[in-house]
Amino acid sequence: MILFLKELRKTFYIFAAQNLKDTYERRCNIMLIIPVKDGENIDRALKRFKRKFDKTKTMKQLRDRKNFTKPSVKRRAIVQKAQYIQGIRTEEEQG
């Protein structure tokens, strides 16, 4: 992943480029735009960038694609999660 910062007219354009293997696109570039107001602290703008970057779940995708996971293992994890959530809901209903 490549991150770089560019200042244009008091607006920080933060580019996050990454390689994604989507069925529709082979490469995907994501551009996060963080407008910075006059007199605003750069630390605050970076904090907003980090929050926005976390919402895109880019790092989660990179970690998931680091190692291959068999489809059967993925399905098993989904079923286990559903069983866990269902167990919590039944406990709440029973008291």
Structural account:
With 95 residues, the protein is of the alpha+beta class. Helices cover 49% and strands 26% of the residues. It has three helices and three strands. Strands 1-2-3 form a three-stranded antiparallel β-sheet, covered by helices on one side. The longest helix has 24 residues, at 71-94.
Q: Could you give a short description of this structure?
A:
By secondary structure, the protein is of the alpha+beta class. The protein is built from three helices and three strands. The protein has a three-stranded antiparallel beta sheet with strand order 1-2-3, with helices on one face.
> Would you count the extended β strands for me?
3
What value does the Rg take, in angstroms? 20 Å
Q: Which structural category do the helix and sheet elements fall into?
A: alpha+beta
Total helical elements: 3
Q: In percent terms, what proportion of residues is strand? A: 25-35%
Low-confidence stretches: 1-12, 14-27
User: How would you describe the oligomerization state of the chains in this entry?
Assistant: single chain
Query: What is the H/E string?
Result: EEEHHH
Instruction: Going across the biggest sheet, name each strand in turn.
Output: 1-2-3
The major beta sheet can be summarized as: 3 strands, antiparallel
Q: What distance separates the N and C termini? A: 48 Å
Helix fraction? 40-55%
Which shape, going by the Cα principal axes? flat
Q: What do the pLDDT scores average to? A: 76
